[in-house]
Design a protein that fits this description.
There is one protein chain. By secondary structure, this protein is an alpha+beta fold. Helices cover 44% and strands 23% of the residues. The chain contains 4 helices and 4 strands. Strands 3-2-1-4 form a 4-stranded mixed sheet, covered by helices on one side. Strand 2 and strand 3 form a beta hairpin. The longest helix has 29 residues. It is globular, with a radius of gyration of 19 Å. The C terminus is likely disordered.
């Protein structure tokens, strides 16, 4: 099967609405099927972003607008930040046992991705409240606000307040 480029472009767009309407339910079903390794003693939770070129990023228009305003065009015009997150489990020797990866296309403050990450961490801590939680991020203030505030609530009482 050799689908055309236009078909490969249309298919995710056609499926997106159906998936998003049921996404929390689908993700909950997937979480119930995932095993946390029994030898895991720690869970690393990371949140980040990566700049990615957008097909309709309007690079040329943004650079033209910068020039018209008397500014030198610079930086990644036509790029946007794609949110990414992981939950990884480690054994007592610090060996990574498995990693769950999540990513979302650009949206303000990574709201959906943060919700997905919260659900993943909550689900893990309900099943394994003994896990030590380690938070990982670069220096982006929004990432640390989420990790320190939202996840603090989940990890401080080991989900007893849920």
């Amino acid at each position: 099967m050799t689908p055309s480029k236009s078909t490969l472009d249309r298919l995710p767009k056609a499926l997106q609405g159906h998936w998003e309407a049921q996404r929390p339910r689908f993700e909950a079903m997937l979480r119930r099927q995932e095993d946390i390794p029994p030898e895991a003693v720690a869970m690393a939770v990371s949140l980040d972003g990566v700049m990615a070129p957008m097909k309709d990023g309007q690079r040329h228009a943004k650079r033209t607008q910068a020039r018209a305003q008397g500014k030198a065009p610079s930086g990644p015009a036509g790029y946007q930040e794609v949110g990414c997150a992981t939950v990884s489990y480690y054994d007592r020797h610090g060996e990574r046992l498995c990693t769950r990866r999540m990513a979302r296309m650009p949206e303000p403050t990574k709201a959906t991705l943060k919700g997905q990450l919260t659900a993943e961490v909550m689900g893990a801590l309900i099943r394994r409240p003994d896990l030590r939680v380690v938070k990982v991020a670069d220096g982006a203030p929004d990432n640390w606000n989420y990790l320190s505030e939202t996840l603090l609530v989940l990890t401080s009482d080991r989900v007893s307040s849920l």
